[in-house]
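User:
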Amino acid sequence: MYKGVNAPAHAAGDMFAHEDVWTQIVGDQAGAFVMADGNLCPHPIRVDYGHGDGIIDWNATPVDPSGSVYSKAEPFFNTALCQDHRPWHFDLGMRVAGLPAGTYRVYALCRSIRRPTAAYDVSFGVNLDRQLDKPLAMPPMNDLAGAKWQDGLTCAVADVEVSSAEDWVTFITRYSRERSLKTTPHHGRSVLLGLQIVEIREK
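Assistant: Predicted structure:
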């Protein structure tokens, strides 16, 4: 998914153009993951997924509303890597454990595939179970067809320090009813489309 320069880390210059492998995740998952160079990840990565009203319940069962591909949401958000059909005031969370100690740049795709004019609050950190006091704010997206990958608009980006493989690198998002454009009588929902995790190394 998101081949070549159609991925946020590529647009930011953090990955080479040939590194274009994404691992599809639906709900909780453990096992073999594919790295960007196409090789199997040598680390036992664990993925946990949950939702909650204020505090994430990491044992919650994800609910996929339809699994449909929405072709009208081109060019970026036409495939749901991970979506949970929860009310608008619920937080959604995804966390990853098993990464070696180091600094990681996390690109989160949390733009709605059906409502690009929705706004979101996004938090990154280690071992989180709720939104940070000062989350990143993703504003509504007005021009979907002409958009390019942009930090803070089409994706959220933050660096996270991992001290051990037991740390959970955590991403939490919530739909912002106040900042979203009122283009529909229906409330938006928080969405998790995908994560790119890039290890930052000294050159």
